[in-house]
Predict the structure.
Amino acid sequence: MPTVTLGLRLRFSLLVRTVFALCILGTLTLVLSLIISVFGAFFGFIVWGWLFRIYEFVLTMPRVSAMTPVPSTAVAPLALLVLVGIVYGWEQIARYTSADTLLPPTDPASATLSVVALGSLYLLVVEGIIAIGVALSAALSALDSLLVVFLVGAALAVVGTVGEVRQEIGSLRENLLDETVLAEDAAPEVERTTHRLAQLADVPPPEVRVAETDRPESFTIGTGTSAVVVVSRGLVEALEEAELEAVLAHEVSHLANQDSRIMGAALAPVLAADDWIDQNPSDYDVGDWLWNALFRGLKWFGQLGVAVFSRGRELSADTAGAALTGSPAALSSALRRLDEERRTPETDLRAWEDSVTAIDILPPSEREGATGPFRTHPSTDARIERLRRMAAETERE
């Protein structure tokens, strides 16, 4: 990628934004982790109680290990081997019977095998539970069992929440690609320009898609070989060739900086807080009101950090994109033209989370967070002024 010279003022601004955002998001992540851990541990104690009752019930059931000196740790694996042998060896065994299937049995041989199979399954479940109980008792004898249950429940809750949030982010990104077509068919010149800029930036060529909408927009999703750059039909038609190249350079710069991955990680605790908000609270339940007030506050707190961080990434992408094309004026002109085109949007606007996930060239409408502390982009006027100063410096050189 061509060398990008960031001014001292911009470097300091990016550093401050990053530290500020990380403090907010780190605090939010810690608080959410503690809350999730407590609920996970509480659920873990409930599950532990259920498991203990099941274990006590199984102890009263007839089993081989209770009638012979053979331990359950040996009976359960043996029962598993017998069951697997019957199921997977049925094709060979069937040659010596007149039955076509193991269940239901149709002759004495298959009936005998069915009894053996069901008996092995019974022993596997019963003796397996006993074996697991014995192993857990031995493992917990040297530890505080309550602490272990707490830690396991907390860990599972946190891991489950992280997995759910990752799925939500993936779903957000998939929704953004709905109703788009490959640029190879719809706008091959856009794909060629994007791939050329990606080569200059030393990043894998992304998939390029076109959204069939009149609203001018462009955004980047994913990183590396899974990256996708999306431009709308309205954007392609609204911009001149140099301006379109500048916008594509801005998006490629997001790829080079791995901004989509970074912003996805930053958005994760915000989505986690949102998941805990009760969407159908009772109007007369103070507990519901306090619960939602807590998690809405945490969500807004996280949105503030994400927005500050996102604005820094946009400034960096502007600088890198202008350096990639060597024409800050073209990106400045494109931003002004797009800003004017999008003042009266004709299509539905994406949610705040979509805007953060997609790394759009411009923010959503004012009513969705384009202004104020939650705005995801610097003001267009401020970005244009920075690019004009870059253009003036380039001319002097």
Summary: Residues 273 and 298 are 6 Å apart (CA to CA). The first helix runs from residue 8 to 59. The chain has two domains: 13-29+180-396, 61-142.
